[in-house]
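Continuing the series of single-chain predictions for the mutant panel. This is the parent chain; the variants come on the following pages.
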Amino acid sequence: MISRHQQDVEKYVDDVIHGRVITGRLARLAVWRYLDDLKYAEARGFEFKKEYAEEFLDFSEVCPHTQGEWAGKPFISEPWQKFLDWNIFGWRRIDDKTRRFRKDFEEIARKNGKTSRCGPKCFYLSIMDNPIEEGGQGYCVATKEDQAKLLFDEIKRCREKSATLKSYCQAFQRRIVFPSTQSYMQVLGSDSDSQDGFNPHFIVRDELHAWREKHRGLAEKLDTGFGSRRQPLMITITTGGDDNSCIWIEEHDYAVQVLESVITGEIIDDSVFAYIASIDYRETPCFRCLGNNCPWCCGTGTIPADDPFDEACWQKSNPNLGVSVKLERLREVANEAKNKPSALNKWLRYHCNIRVSAKEKLISPEAWVACKGEFSDWTTADRVHGAFDLGRSNDMAGAAPVARFDLVDDDGKEFKRFEIRSRAWTCEDRNDDVKTEQIGRWVREDLLSECYGNQILISDVEEWIVEQTALWNVSTWAYDPDFAMQLGQRLQEVHGKTVFPFTQAPKYYNEAVRTLERLLTEVHIVNGKKVRALCHDGDPVLAWMMTNLIVRKNAKDEW
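Parent structure:
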C-alpha cells in the first residue's frame, strides 16, 4: 500500500520533471539524481527503504510549529520538504543498513522553513534514530554562540509546545538532555569556551554563508569529529554567499558537483545529499529535454537566464512561496532592490539565492557534454595548434592539440570547427585538494598520468608533446611562461618545435575566452546533419577541468 508520504513525494517528483512545479536547474538535478539512483545505486551498495523515510515523516508531525500563524499546530511538511527528508532518511547502505547520506546540504532562500525543519530532525536523531544511537551528541553550530542559540532556542520552543517531546527530554539554557538514550544536544560557536572532547552523532550548521577563513578551525574540527559514530549526519542550512564566504564557496561548489554528476556520469560522492533552490542566473542547454512540449525550454533546447525581478521565477529559490514566504513581501523587497543599488545584492543573495561575485564559471556541464562527438580525420585538418601548462610542481599539468577545419554549411556560410585532444598529469604526492577518489580512479583507469614522488616529470610531458606533434603535424605550441619556460625552451632548442609564450593576462585571454563561450553553442547543418563548432571526445578529466574554469572580468570587461 502506498502511504500518503510516498504519494506526495512521487507527485512532487513527477510535477518537477513535467514543469508543474517551478524549480531551478539544480533542484531539478536533485530530482533526476533520485530517479537515477532508484535504477543504479544498488550496484554501488545502496538501497531505498521507504519504511525508514515514512517513520521520520510520521515522527515529524508530532513536532509543532512554534511561531506565527501555525504556532502549536503539527509540522506537516510540504511536498518539496518531504522529498528532501524522504532521501535523507530513506536511502540505506546495503551492507549494514545504516544511512547512506552522512551530509545534508540545503541551500534555500530566506524564510523557506530551513530552521523549522531542523527541530524534528534533532529530536528524531536524539530519541529514536534507526538504529538508536546511545550516548549521542548533537550540536547546533554557528560562527558565534549567540547565532547558534537562535536555532537552539527554536528547537527548545518546539519542545515546550509538545507534551510528547517534553516527556522525553529536559531543557537547560545551553543543552537539552534525553535520559532514555543518554544523549544530549547543545549550542556551539567558534567563541564557545570549549570545543574539545565532542563526539557528535549529528551537527546542524546554521548560515554557512557567514563562515569566514577564521572559522576554518571549527569547520575542520566538526568534519573530523564523527569518527566513532555508526551513521553520523552533518546538516547544513544556508542561503547564498559572496566572494568572502570562503567555506560556503567550497561546500557549495562541491554540492553542485555532486548534483551535476547526473549530467557527467561521474559519481562524485554517494554520501552527500544536496538540494539547492535558486533562480537560473545563466543560460544553459536543456538537460533531458522533453522535446517540443518541454516545459523548461519550450522545445528550443536552451533554458534562458532568469530575470531576478520576474515573479514567475521566484518559486525557484522560494519553494515555500505562498506558505511561509509571502508574495507581497517579496514584491516589496524586489521593488526596493530595483530602486536602491545598495539593496540589490541582498535581494540576489537572500531571496534569489545566487552568489554575488565578480567571477563565475564559464562552462556548464550540459554545454560541455553537448559538444562530445566523433573526431574528423586530423590528417586533413586545415591547421593544428597546441598548448601546455605545467602548473605548480605538486598540482597538475595539461597539454592539448586542437585541430581546426574550415567548413561551409548547407546555407553557404563559412565556419570553423575545432576538435580537442588532451592529456593531463599529476604526481603521487600531490596537493590535498586533488587527492580525491574521483582523481584516483582516473589514475587507475589511465585517464590521468601519475608521476612518482612529489613533482610532475617534465620529461613525460615533453615526450607526449613531441609524439603528438609528429602524429598530427602540430604547427605551434603555446605555453604559460610562469611555470613552463624551461619546457618551452627544450621544445624549441632540442626538438626544433615552434613555441610562443601565452601569458595569463586579459589582453591575451579576452578574445580566446569569448570565442570559446560562443563556440559552445554554435551548431551548423552540413550535408543535412548537425555539426557543432566545438568537439571533444568525452575525456572526463578534461570535462572536470573545463567545467571548473573561472572567468574574471576587469573594469574594461576583459575576460
